[in-house]
Amino acid sequence: MTKIPIFLFSLFLFNVAAAQDNYEIQVYGSPTQTKGSTMFELHSNYTFDGQKNVIDGVRPSNHALHETVEITHGITDNFEIGFYFFTNYTSKYGYQYVGSHIRPRISVPEKWHWPFGASLSTEIGFQSSEYSEDTWSIEVRPILDKQYNKFYISFNPTFGIGLSGGTDHTPSFEPNLKTSYTINKFALGLEYYGNIGQLDFIPRVSQENHALFAVADLDLDPRWELNFGPGWGLTKATDAFVFKIILGRRITWKKAKK
Q1: What tens digit of pLDDT does each residue of 233-254 get?
Q2: Within a 13 Å sphere around the CA of 47, how many CA atoms are in the beta-carbon half?
Q3: According to the UniProt entry, where is the signal peptide (predicted)?
Q4: What letters, b where the CB count within 10 A reaches 16 and e where it falls short, cover 171-187?
């Protein structure tokens, strides 16, 4: 999520900046893409009720369609690289390119026999100053998850650091959490997304960014991924209502026969 120190000056500015976080709304699982496979994902998120004003050059999120193309390729059995292409559409500004990120990730091998899944993602990239206070940022995301029969839980204690723009480079804590229960090939669950603030200045809860999504995951075919559901902002600093859809297609590239 976007790293914004504007709350140091006023709640109103913080609200506007935080509203632009709705490009990739996803809690990561620990497994990486298998070697030689590629996942193509489209993240489509529509903000039905969000920030309505332009403040300090950052455009509002209200009635914005955020679409992100994510392409992730498995380099080894435990290492992948992902690439993001962010876009934004509103009736006033039309379709706009927002930025791009690259994300290497490494996972703990199964042969280590840890009692839970674990991986580490590092994402770095650029976003337009019209949609983010930080034009360059880096995100460090540890990923811990566990499957208990039909119950699944994943925790991403994420840290974001603004590298350029309106930031002082202090890491912000942005925890994500997912729980779900599977019935046949259909999983119902909850996803939580937060931005507690920068570690050297934790604002009041009303100034923090907290959202809760009710989600469904459909797993009829290992080649396809579908995750969708509505989300509600839990504080005034968060967009009030967002609907998200993630549609993915996995391709395993076969070597040509000699």
Answers
A1: 999 989 999 999 999 999 999 7
A2: 29
A3: 1-19
A4: bbbbbbbbbbebeeeeb
